[in-house]
Amino acid sequence: MNDSQSSAITLKEIETQALLTCREAFARYDEVAVKNTEKILTAFRECQLSAFHFQGTTGYGYDDVGRETLEKVFAHVFRAEKALVRPHFVSGTHALATVLLALLNHGDEMVCAMGTPYDTMQTVIGLTGNAPGNLQERGVAYHEVATKDGRCDLTALANAVGPKTRLVLIQRSRGYAERKALTITEIEEIIRVIKAKNPQTICFVDNCYGEFTATQEPIEVGADIAAGSLIKNAGGGIAPTGSYVVGCTDLVEATAHQLTAPGLGDEMGSYTPGYRLFFEGLFMAPHVVGQALRATEFAAAVFHRLGFKSEPQLGTERSDLIQTIELGTEKALCGFCEGLQAWSPVDGYVRPVPGELPGYADPIIMACGAFTQGSSIELSADGPLRAPYTVYLQGGLVFEHSRLAIMGAAAKVLEQ
Ligand SMILES: *Cc1c(COP(=O)(O)O)cnc(C)c1O
After folding, report:
1. In 3D, which of 170, 43, 163 has the Cα closest to residue 117?
2. 44 close to ligand 1 (CB < 6 Angstrom)
3. If you measure from the C-alpha of residue 121 to the centroid of ligand 1, how many angstroms do you get, rounded to a whole number?
4. Is there a smaller number of Cβ atoms within 10 Å at the N or the C end of the chain?
C-alpha cells in the first residue's frame, strides 16, 4: 500500500468516527431547531401570514402590509415589543450603528461588556479608522471591559457601569476575538449585573451569528434591544440583504427615526422585489443554523482526531457558528482554504491565494463561494498568515456540502 492510499483510508475512518462522535450534539441541535421552528410557525399563524404579504410596494411604501407583517413576525419570534426589519440596512454593522447613533448623544457614555468589539464596530465607535461621524467624534465617551479567561469579567463590568452609562454593548458571538461566544444564560447574568448598577442603562445585544443557536433570544433574558444581519442566521441563507432590530418600543422607534429621518420613522420604506424571501428565510433559519452548527462540530471532531487544537471544543455548548482550528503552518492554512474552496458551490474551480486587506497587518487567505455576496451563513473560512495559523471556519447551509468540504480541507492539510 502506498502512502496516499493509507492516508485516504485513514481519512475515511476519521470521517466515520467523527460522525459517530457528533451524534449526540446533532440530536441536540435538532431539538433546538424544532423549538425555534415552533416559535416561527406560531408567529406566522398569529400574524395571519398569507401569500399577499409577499408583494412589494413602490415609492414611499405607505401601508406596506408585507413590511408591517414581517416586522410583527420578527417582534413575535424574538419576544420583543417592536421590530424594525429592513432590506435598507446595508449590513449588520449598519443596523448596529443606527441603534448606537439613535440612542447615544453628546456627553453619554457607552461601555463594551466583552472587550474590544467586532472590527467594523471599532470604526463606528472611533477606535480605528477615524471615520466621519463616529461616536467618539460626536462626543460619546467609550469604555471597554476586558474579558477574563475568555469570559465576561462581571466585577470589572459592575465597576464600569455608573450613573452616566447610557448603554452597554453586549456582543454574543466571539467574532475574531480570542474568547468564547456568550450563552443566553451568560447574557442574562451580564444584564443582571448592569441593571443592578443602573436600571436606566440600555442593554444592547449584538446578536449577529447567535440567532437560533439556543431556544431563547436576548430580549427574553432582559435585553432592551438587539440587532442582527439577515445574511447571517436570521435570513436562513435565503434573505438577499438587510438586517433587523428588535426591542422596547421607544428604542426601536428611535432607531427607525435615525434610519429614515426624524419624523418619518418606520412608516415608510418600500421594497419592490417583495418580502417572500425574508419570510421564507426566517422559516428556514432554525434548520439552517442547525446545519451550520453540525459543520462546526464535525470540523472540531475531524481536526481533533488529526491532532489539531480547535475551539469550541467537542461536545461543548455552541452559541455562534464559528470554529477555529490552529493549523500550525502557513502551508496547512493555505491547504485548508484550497480544499474548502474546491468544494464551494460557486467558484469551486478557483484557487485562493493570500492577499493584503486594508486594515489588516498580515495577509489574509479566504475560501468562500457563496450564492449571496458576503453571506457568512454560507460555508466559508479565512485566517491571517501569522502564527499559530488559525483558520476561522463558519456557516454552512447544507451539512452534506460542509461534510464534503471539511473532508476536502482535511485531505489538503494532510498533503502539506
Ligand atoms: C457579522 C457581524 C457583525 C456585522 O457585520 P456585517 O458584515 O456588517 O454584517 C457585527 N458583529 C458581529 C459579532 C458579527 O459577527
Report:
1. 170
2. no
3. 8
4. N
